[in-house]
Specification:
6% of the residues lie in helices and 49% in strands. By secondary structure, the chain is mainly beta.
C-alpha cells in the first residue's frame, strides 16, 4: 500500500512538473515608489521575444516557458528590474524605482532606446506627470522651465505657438526651433499631439545624440512618446478641465482726467473731433468683459490580448482669447494598434492621428493692440447714435473695437499623420524595422474686411508686424475686401533599419544601420483676393460675388510665387554602441544626407559623432565608499546640420514678374531674374563638444547632472547683398557666417522628505549660455561685418533701428542711441560717436552697443508635496540677465503729441518741449529678468470609488500667480525665438492668469 502511495505521488509530481514545463502562468502588478500603478509597463521573459504590457491598473498576466524563467520589467522613466521565478510563486507585486532616485531609466533615442545609466550623450527626459499643467495646447509650453538649456517663450495669444530655443540660437535664417520626432516619425507637427496622450518627452541636446538625424538636428531633437495599450480587459480613462483666464497686467496709460490735467498744464488742446467728453479705457474696451473661458476633454480606451494591444483616444480643447473675437478650438483623434504574429517574432504597428483646428484670429491684431494703448481716453467707443466713433481727419487713428467688429480673420487646419511599422526579430540578436509614414496638412484661410474698412484707406492704415519685419501701408479696396487661400503640405517617409543587440561575456554591442527616403510637397494650393461686394454679410466664403474689375487699378493677389515647393531627402545612417562591463561605454554615429534644396555641387553632407563614458562607480576603488551610488563621466563630439529656413529652390536661378513698364501707350508686364543661382550652396554645420557628469548620492536621495558644451555653427546661410555687377539681382543666398554658443547646464533631483504620510521632492535646473556671431562675411558680401536691423518705425522714428548683426556680438545685440539725460534747457541729449553730447544725434552714426536680449541664466524649480491623498505642485521659473528694448514705452512717451495720442502715466513729468524724449535709445532698454510662480496645483486622489471607478483625482490649478520683475512693460516674457529676440514693439498680446478645475478618472 505504501509503495502504491509513493508511485501515485511520483506520478502526480511528474505530471505537475511536466505541466510547468509546458506552460507556466504568472501574474502581478507593477507599481511605482508611491504604490501607484504603472500602465503600459513592459514585462519581458529574458532570452525570448515574448513580452506583455500592463493595463491601466498596472496589472499583467503572461505565460512563460518554464517555472525558473527570468522576467525583465521596464518602464520609461524608471529603473529596469529583474525578477527570477522560483517555481512556486506565481503572483508578484513589483515596485520600480523612479529616475529621481536612480539614473537607470529607459530613454528614447533615434531609431531605438537606451538605458540612461549607459548613455554617452546629453539627454533630458520629462515624464508625463512632470509636464506643466494649465490651458496648454502645444508641447513647448508643456516643457517650459522643465529642461536645462531649453528657452521657451509664449504670449497670451491662444492661436500662437511658443518659441523654443535649445542651447542658444544656431542660425540666422530660421525659427531656431528643435526637430520633433513623435513615436519614431521624424518631422511631425507637434500640434497633433494631445498632452494627455504623452508618456514621456526626451530632449536630445548634444550633437552626439542628435547626429543620427543629420541635417535637421542643428537646433536639437525632441522625442515624444505617446501611450500604448495594455493587456487583458479594456481600460477607460477620462480627464477634463474648465478654466477661466484674466489679463494679468496692462500698461498704465493716462485716463481722461490725468490726460486733461497734463494737456492743460502744458497748454495743449484736444481737437474737437477727438474730445467727446469720454473716459474710455481702450485696453479694457478690446477685452472680453468677464475673462476668457477654456475647457478640455480627453477620453481614451485601451486593451489587448496575448498577442496584441490597442490604444484609442479623442481629445478636445476650446480656448477663448482675452481679446474680443479671438478663440481657438481643436479636436484630436488618435489610434495606436500593435499586433504580434509568427510566435511573437513579428510585430506590426499602426499609428493614426488626425487633428482638426480652428483659429479665430483678431483682425489686424497687432494694429488693434497698438491702437488700444495709443487711443485717446477722451474719445468714446461709440457715438450717441450707436455707430462707432472714428476720426479719419487724423492719420493712423482708428477705433480698435470697430476694427474687430468689422473684420474676420479665420484659419482652419486639418493635420493627418499615419504610420505603419513592422519589426521582425531575427536570429543572433538581429531585428529588422520597416517604417512607413505619411503626413498631410491642409490649411484653409480666409480674411474679410467689410465696407467699413474702406474709410481707413484715406487715413494711412499701416499694419504692425512682429519684428524684424517693417510696416507697410494697407489698402482695403472698396465695398469690402476678401482673401481666401487653400494650401496643402504633404510628407512621405520610408525608413528601413537593422538593429543588432548581443552580449559576449563582459562585452555588449548595440548597432543600427539604416536608410531613409523622404519627399515633401509644400504649398500645393492657391490664393486669391478681391474687392467690391454687393453686401457686407457675404464674408470670404463667396469671392464670385465681388466685382473687382470695376475698381480702377485693383490687382488680384495670387499669393507667393514660390509657395509651391518640392523637396527630397535621402539618407544613410548608422550607430555603434560598445559596452564593457557596464563600465566603459563608447558610441559612434554617422549619417550621410543628400538633399535637393542645396546647390548641385554640394548635395551631400556627412554628419559624424562620437561619444564615450566612464561609469566610475563600477570601479573597484569605489566599492567601499558610501557617497555615490552612481557616478558617470561623459564626453562627446558631433556635427549636425540645418536645412530649414530657406526655400526648396533657393540655390536655383528663378525668373519672375518685375512689375510693368510703359511701352507704346500701354503698361506691359516685365519679367526677368529675381533670384540668383548658387550651385555651391551647402549645409550649415553645427559642431558640438560636450562634457557631462551624472551622479546619484545619499542612497538615491539626490541625483543630478552637469554638462559643459561648446557649439559652433559654420557656413551659416544668409541672404547677402552683393554687387549687382557680379549678381544682377543684387542679393544671393550663400554660406558665409559662423556662430558660437558656449554654456553650462545643471540639473538636480532631490527626494528631500519621505515618510509614511508625507513626501517632498524638488527638482532644480539651471543653465547659462553665451551666444556670439563670430563671422558675418562672404566673398561676395559688400556690407562689411555688420547689418543694422529691426526697424519698428514708430511715429518720429523713421530710419531708427534697434539691433545689429555684428561679428563679435550676440544675436539680439542692441545698437542704438545712448541716452545722457537732459541738458540745462530740459531737452534729452545723447552721446555722439566722438563721446560728446548732442541733442541732434545722427541715426546709425551716433549709435552705441547697449546690451543683449540673450538671457544669461535660465531657472526652473519644481516642488511636489504629498500628504496622504493630497498632492501639491509649486513650480517657479525664471529668466535672468537679458535686456528688452521697450519700443512700446518709447512710442507712448511722446508728451508733445499728448493731444492726439495717449501717453503713459509716468510720462507726466516730461515736457512737451522736449522733442527728443521718445527717441529709441538706451533710455528704453530695460532689465528683462523675472521670476514667475508659473504653476500652483492642489489635487486630491480618492483612489478606488465604487465598483467601476478605479481611480478618481480632482485638482485646482492657478497659472502665472505672480511675477517678480523690474520690467515696466506688460510682461517680461518677450519673444526669444527668431532673429529679433527681446523687442517689445506695440504687439504684445496680454499675458493671462488662469484658474482651472480638473479631474482624472480611470474606469
Amino acid at each position: 500500500m505504501e509503495k502504491l502511495k509513493l508511485l501515485l505521488l511520483a506520478f502526480f509530481l511528474g505530471l505537475s512538473i511536466n505541466s510547468w514545463a509546458q506552460k507556466t502562468e504568472v501574474s502581478g502588478v507593477i507599481l511605482d515608489e508611491k504604490n501607484l500603478p504603472l500602465p503600459a509597463a513592459n514585462i519581458l521573459e529574458k532570452g525570448t521575444t515574448h513580452s506583455v504590457v500592463t493595463d491601466f491598473d498596472g496589472k499583467f498576466k503572461m505565460s512563460v516557458s518554464n517555472p525558473n524563467a527570468t522576467l525583465v520589467v521596464s518602464f520609461i522613466g524608471f529603473t529596469d528590474q529583474t525578477v527570477k521565478l522560483d517555481g512556486s510563486k506565481t503572483n508578484f507585486t513589483i515596485r520600480l524605482a523612479s529616475a529621481t532616485t536612480a539614473l537607470e531609466q529607459v530613454v528614447v533615442v533615434g531609431y531605438g532606446k537606451g538605458s540612461r545609466k549607459n548613455l554617452t550623450t546629453a539627454v533630458t527626459s520629462v515624464k508625463a506627470d512632470q509636464l506643466n499643467n494649465g490651458v496648454i495646447s502645444d508641447v513647448g509650453q508643456l516643457l517650459q522651465g522643465k529642461v536645462a538649456g531649453l528657452n521657451v517663450s509664449s504670449s497670451g495669444d491662444p492661436t500662437k505657438q511658443s518659441s523654443v530655443v535649445l542651447r542658444g540660437a544656431s542660425t540666422l535664417n530660421s525659427s531656431q526651433g528643435p526637430f520633433y520626432v513623435v513615436d519614431g516619425i521624424p518631422g511631425v507637427d507637434i500640434s497633433i499631439i494631445a498632452p494627455e496622450d504623452i508618456v514621456t518627452i526626451d530632449v536630445l541636446k548634444d550633437a552626439a545624440a542628435t547626429a543620427i538625424y543629420g541635417n535637421r538636428a542643428a537646433n536639437g531633437v525632441i522625442m515624444v512618446t505617446t501611450k500604448r495599450g495594455g493587456k487583458d480587459k479594456t481600460q477607460i480613462s477620462y480627464s477634463n478641465y474648465f478654466g477661466k483666464e484674466y489679463v494679468s497686467n496692462q500698461l498704465n496709460m493716462m485716463n481722461a482726467k490725468q490726460l486733461r490735467d497734463f494737456t492743460s498744464k502744458n497748454n495743449l488742446n484736444f481737437t474737437p473731433e477727438n474730445d467727446k467728453g469720454a473716459d474710455t479705457d481702450w485696453q479694457k474696451a478690446v477685452l472680453r468683459d468677464n475673462g476668457a473661458l477654456s475647457s478640455s476633454h480627453n477620453l481614451s480606451m485601451s486593451g489587448g490580448g496575448e498577442h496584441g494591444n490597442y490604444f484609442a483616444s479623442i481629445s478636445t480643447i476650446n480656448k477663448e482669447g482675452v481679446l474680443l473675437g479671438n478663440n481657438f478650438s481643436r479636436l484630436i483623434a488618435h489610434l495606436a494598434v500593435e499586433q504580434f504574429a509568427f510566435d511573437d517574432k513579428v510585430k506590426f504597428g499602426l499609428n493614426v492621428t488626425n487633428s482638426n483646428s480652428k483659429y479665430a484670429n483678431v483682425p489686424q491684431r497687432n494694429t488693434v493692440l497698438l491702437q488700444a494703448v495709443s487711443h485717446l481716453p477722451v474719445s468714446p467707443v461709440k457715438n450717441e447714435d450707436g455707430s462707432y466713433f472714428e476720426n479719419f481727419i487724423q492719420t493712423s487713428y482708428f477705433n480698435p473695437v470697430a476694427m474687430i467688429a468689422h473684420g474676420d480673420d479665420d484659419t482652419k487646419t486639418n493635420n493627418f499623420v499615419g504610420s505603419f511599422t513592422t519589426e521582425v526579430k531575427l536570429p543572433f540578436g538581429f531585428s529588422y524595422n520597416l517604417n512607413l509614414s505619411y503626413q498631410q496638412l491642409n490649411s484653409l484661410h480666409g480674411e474679410f474686411y467689410d465696407s467699413y474698412y474702406q474709410k481707413y484707406n484715406s487715413a494711412n492704415f499701416y499694419n504692425n508686424p512682429d519684428p524684424p519685419l517693417t510696416k507697410t501701408l494697407m489698402n482695403f479696396g472698396v465695398n469690402g475686401s476678401a482673401l481666401r487661400s487653400s494650401y496643402q503640405n504633404s510628407n512621405t517617409i520610408i525608413e528601413s533599419f537593422l538593429n543588432w543587440d548581443r552580449e559576449f561575456g563582459d562585452h555588449k554591442i548595440k548597432a543600427v544601420l539604416g536608410y531613409s527616403w523622404q519627399e515633401d510637397v509644400l504649398g500645393d494650393g492657391f490664393q486669391a483676393t478681391t474687392t467690391n461686394f454687393p453686401v457686407d454679410n457675404v464674408g470670404y466664403n463667396n469671392l464670385a460675388l465681388s466685382n473687382y474689375t470695376s475698381v480702377n487699378g485693383y490687382v488680384v493677389n495670387f499669393g507667393d510665387s514660390k509657395a509651391y515647393q518640392k523637396k527630397r531627402l535621402i539618407s544613410y545612417f548608422g550607430r555603434f554602441n560598445y559596452n564593457y562591463k557596464d563600465k566603459y561605454l563608447l558610441q559612434g554615429t554617422l549619417r550621410r544626407d543628400g538633399g535637393s534644396v542645396f546647390g548641385e555641387n554640394n548635395r551631400w553632407g556627412y554628419f559624424p559623432s562620437v561619444g564615450g563614458a566612464w561609469r566610475i562607480d563600477k570601479e573597484g576603488f569605489m566599492k567601499n565608499q558610501g557617497i555615490f551610488t552612481d557616478l558617470k563621466l561623459r564626453a562627446s563630439y558631433g556635427e549636425t546640420g540645418n536645412s530649414s529656413g530657406f526655400n526648396a529652390y533657393t540655390a536655383q536661378f528663378i525668373s519672375g514678374s518685375l512689375g510693368t513698364f510703359y511701352y507704346n501707350g500701354q503698361q506691359v508686364g516685365a519679367y526677368g531674374p529675381n533670384q540668383a543661382a548658387n550651385p555651391d550652396l551647402k549645409w550649415e554645420k553645427t559642431a558640438t563638444a560636450n562634457i557631462g557628469l551624472d551622479f546619484t548620492i545619499l542612497k538615491g536621495r539626490v541625483s543630478g547632472s552637469v554638462d559643459l558644451y561648446d557649439k559652433k555653427t559654420t557656413d551659416m546661410i544668409f541672404n547677402y547683398s552683393v554687387n549687382p555687377v557680379l549678381v544682377p539681382v543684387g542679393t544671393i543666398v550663400a554660406n558665409g557666417g559662423n556662430m558660437s554658443n558656449k554654456g553650462i547646464e545643471v540639473g538636480l533631483n532631490i527626494n528631500a522628505i519621505k515618510t509614511k504620510n508625507f513626501s517632498w521632492t524638488t527638482n532644480l535646473n539651471g543653465s547659462h549660455n553665451k551666444n556670439e556671431i563670430t563671422k558675418l562675411t562672404n566673398p561676395y558680401f559688400i556690407g562689411g561685418d555688420s547689418i543694422r536691423r529691426v526697424q519698428p518705425e514708430g511715429a518720429g522714428q523713421t530710419g531708427s533701428t534697434l539691433q545689429i548683426f555684428k561679428e563679435g556680438k550676440p544675436l539680439g545685440q542692441f545698437f542704438t542711441l545712448k541716452y545722457a539725460g537732459k541738458n540745462s534747457a530740459g531737452v534729452s541729449q545723447y552721446v555722439a560717436k566722438d563721446g560728446s553730447l548732442t541733442t541732434t544725434p545722427a541715426i546709425g552714426t551716433d549709435y552705441h552697443y547697449a546690451g543683449s536680449a540673450q538671457p544669461k541664466f535660465l531657472l526652473g524649480w519644481d516642488n511636489n508635496f504629498t500628504y496622504k491623498k493630497f498632492d501639491l505642485n509649486i513650480f517657479f521659473r525664471g529668466v535672468f540677465g537679458n535686456k528688452i528694448f521697450n519700443a512700446t514705452r518709447a512710442d507712448l512717451f511722446r508728451p508733445s503729441t499728448a493731444m492726439t495720442t495717449n501717453i503713459l502715466v509716468d510720462a507726466a513729468n516730461e515736457s512737451p518741449n522736449d522733442l527728443n524724449s521718445y527717441k529709441y535709445s538706451t533710455r528704453f532698454i530695460e532689465d528683462g529678468s523675472y521670476l514667475r510662480l508659473d504653476n500652483l496645483t492642489l489635487g486630491y486622489d480618492f483612489g478606488k470609488v465604487g465598483k467601476y471607478i478605479k481611480k478618481l483625482r480632482i485638482y485646482e490649478t492657478v497659472n502665472n500667480l505672480f511675477v517678480i520683475t523690474k520690467y515696466s512693460g506688460i510682461d517680461p516674457e518677450v519673444e526669444q525665438g527668431g532673429t529679433a529676440p527681446g523687442v517689445d514693439s506695440n504687439n504684445f498680446y496680454p499675458k493671462t492668469r488662469t484658474f482651472l478645475f480638473g479631474l482624472n478618472v480611470v474606469f
